[in-house]
Amino acid sequence: MRSAICATRSKGRGRLPEMAAELVRRQVAMIVAIPIPAALAAKAATATIPIVFSVGTDPVKLGLVASLARPGGNATGVSFFIAELGTKQLGLLRELVPAASRIGLLVNPNNLNAEAVAKDVTAAASTIGVKIDIIQARDSREIEAAFATLVRNRVDAFLVGADPFFIDRRLQFATLATRHAIPAVYFRREFTEAGGLMSYGTSSTEEHRQLGVYTGRILKGAKPADLPVVQSTKFEFVINLPTARAIGPDVPPTLLARTERNQPTFRSSSAQNSSSSSISRPPRRSASTCPRRCSPAPTR
Question: Phi-psi bin for 25: left (phi > 0), alpha (psi -120 to 50), beta?
Fold first, then answer.
């Protein structure tokens, strides 16, 4: 019995239909598809081979499933609503830099969620009197150019819209943000582990764990139509203190309190709408690890 993973970053997306069709020709037992473009390509290629997906938006709107509770068809998986995180991330930045009046938002225009993220953040910013500069980048060269624009526009801080390619370039983001001393909030803890300042978003560990659970169940005979889509309800809030000291903003006690309120643990919570908070304290040669997982992150 053979299963297959259909995953891609920005490069190679044009080949996804061809790749999905090849998997169908090989008669694989199932397809694990990450992220949205891969899931759509897999769904278009087969109506019979089971598909387990991970997508950052509503899979019903994408046409992947009939409903979250009863997917129907041959696909199910994990969804996490990336666009809705923008308001919370903006709130975190304002707590870190209360005087911020101009904030940048970096998005990949190739990402299907880019427009929704920009709309969400812009709407939230207008209610607190903050101007949002939307800047696009789809490769490493454009990321360099984006930072030049952020500096030229004299933004007080910036957000990074969720995108798989951006995760690949997390070290570039962390390096440039520190070089130009611009506070930033990212969407995955991998950025703070690479030296980024702050992150708030869904847990990739929990996402991958659930994908593995559903893959195992389907390989043992379960049908995707009978497995409800799992909505990610676990969030991680991480601050890299060495980076904060390097960039300059003093981390407010209110943010520190959220990360230090409980004794440090490293266990997953199964509660709905749970969050984890961390302070990233590095070993001597690094500025990335030693997380502390504690109390709920802000929901403003």
Answer: alpha
Tokens 């504690």 correspond to 294
Is residue 52 a contact partner of residue 31, using CB atoms and an 8 Å limit? yes
Sign of the dihedral defined by the CA atoms of residues 123, 128, 134, 140, in that order: negative
SS3 260: helix
pLDDT beyond 90 at 203: no
19-39 tens-digit pLDDT: 999 999 999 999 999 888 999
Give the CA distances from residue 188 to residues 70, 76, 136, 199, 235, in Å, rounded to whole numbers and listed in that order.
29, 23, 19, 6, 9
242 and 203 in contact (C-beta within 8 Å)?
no
| Whether the Cβ atoms of residue 143 and residue 108 lie closer than 8 Å to each other | no
The dihedral through the CA atoms of 287, 233, 251, 177 has a sign that is positive
Structural domains of the chain in order of their starting residue, each with its CATH number: 3-82+204-231 (3.40.50.2300), 83-203 (3.40.50.2300)
Placement of tokens 């129907």 in the chain? 72
Distance, in Å, from the CA atom of 41 to the CA atom of 33, rounded to the nearest integer, reads: 9
Helix (H, G, I), strand (E, B) or coil at 207: helix
Of residues 230 and 260, more confidence is placed in 230
Using pLDDT thresholds of 50, 70 and 90, give the confidence band for residue 233: confident
CA-closest candidate to residue 49, choices 77, 33, 18, 28: 28
| DSSP helix/strand/coil, 276 | strand
Q: What is the pLDDT of residues 242-280, one digit of tens each?
A: 999 999 888 998 887 776 432 222 222 223 343 444 554
Token reading at 221: 């005979």
